[in-house]
Design brief:
The complex is a heterodimer of chains A (112) and B (114).
Chain A (H helix, E strand, L loop, with lengths): L4 E3 L2 E4 L5 E6 L6 E8 L3 E9 L2 E5 L6 E5 L5 E5 L8 E8 L7 E2 L3 E5 L1
Parallel strand pairs in A: 2-11
Antiparallel strand pairs in A: 1-3, 3-8, 4-5, 4-9, 5-6, 7-8, 9-10, 9-11
Chain B lengths: L8 E5 L4 E6 L7 E8 L6 E6 L4 E2 L4 E4 L5 E6 L8 E9 L15 E6 L1
Parallel strand pairs in B: 1-9
Antiparallel strand pairs in B: 2-7, 3-4, 3-8, 5-6, 6-7, 8-9
Classes of the chains: A mainly beta (112), B mainly beta (114).
Chain lengths: 112, 114
């Protein structure tokens, strides 16, 4: 079974721009979660989508948003990028959102 | 989710057992203990989880104390490839605010030496 895939793997943007990251979950998984990892804050939960609905949300500003499609693929969007948004963005999938999560390799975003 | 406390770093000799402790003294009855690890610059990898009984799989064993206030992850024969950051997470599976959410702490950096 193919694992979780994320595209792109690396991205460089400038302040004020917006960015869209993509995540394809393991086949059959309906829950997709997003995390931000920085050296200072560690791994932090952004939000979770299940059946195209945001079901859970972390403490991030509204500039961070996401969506999920009917095939369970998910995208996250960050608008008006700030230098502090430079991070590794990870997505994870699971069957129902309440068990073991499988993580993708992440997208490394650098904001200049 | 209950807060977990882990030592910031540990060393282990290759071929020996690595015993990683975790304190979760405020864990509630419906919270599981999950362990993940993250090898440098990769996504975290699930290792094992348990509620109150000891658990074993092909990767590791999980020993949870009877009062559930602490646990130990055991890698029976550590190899150099086990060098990683290990995260202990207490997670409710009742639903609601726990859906799809893992609360990561700082973890333990395990270094396996030749």
């Amino acid at each position: 079974k193919a694992g979780v895939t994320q595209t792109p793997r690396y991205l460089i943007k400038t302040r004020g721009q917006q960015v869209t990251l993509s995540c394809s979950p393991i086949s059959g998984h309906r829950s997709v979660s997003w995390y931000q990892q920085t050296p200072g804050q560690g791994l932090q939960f952004l939000f979770e989508y299940f059946s195209e609905t945001q079901r859970n949300k972390g403490n991030f500003p509204g500039r961070f948003s996401g969506r999920q499609f009917s095939n369970s693929r998910s995208e996250m969007n960050v608008s008006t990028l700030e230098l502090g948004d430079s991070a590794l963005y990870l997505c994870a999938s699971s069957s129902w959102g309440d068990g073991e999560q499988f993580f993708g390799p992440g997208t490394r975003l650098t904001v200049l | 989710d209950a807060k977990t406390t882990q030592p910031p770093s540990m060393d282990c000799a290759e071929g020996r057992a690595a015993n990683l402790p975790c304190n979760h003294s405020t864990i509630s009855g419906n919270e599981y203990v999950y362990w993940y690890r993250q090898i440098h610059s990769q996504g975290p990898q699930y290792i094992i989880h348990g509620l109150k009984n000891n658990e074993t799989n092909e990767m590791a064993s999980l020993i949870i104390t009877e009062d559930r206030k602490s646990s130990t992850l055991i890698l029976p024969h550590a190899t150099l490839r086990d060098t990683a950051v290990y995260y202990c997470i207490a997670r409710s599976v009742v639903g609601g605010t726990s859906y799809g959410k893992l609360t990561f702490g700082q973890g333990t950096i395990l270094t396996v030496h030749p």
